[in-house]
Structure prediction request, 101 residues.
Amino acid sequence: MNVWIAIGLTVAGCYLAKLLGLLVPAGVLERPLVQRMAALLPVALLAALTAQQSFGDGQQLVLDARAAGLGAAALALVLRAPFLVVVGAGVLVTAGVRALA
Prediction:
C-alpha cells in the first residue's frame, strides 16, 4: 500500500510542477537571465549525474574502470570524434580496464 501512496504523491507532484510552469507569465520567461538559466540547467544536471555515476559508489569516491572510460570518451570529444566513436571509446576502455583488473 505504501508504494501506491508514493506513486500517487509523485503523480500529484509532477502535475503540480507542470501546472506551476504553465502559470508563469510570459514576461518572466522572456528575461535574458531566465533564458540563460534554462539553457544551462540541463547541462549542469547531466554533468552532475555523470560525475556521480562515474566516481561515486554509495558514500565513497572511487576511481575505477568507469573513470577510465569517461576519460577516454572525453578525449574523443576533445578530438571532435563522432558520437558513436565517443561512446565506443568509452565502452572499449571501460571493458579493457575491467578485463585487466
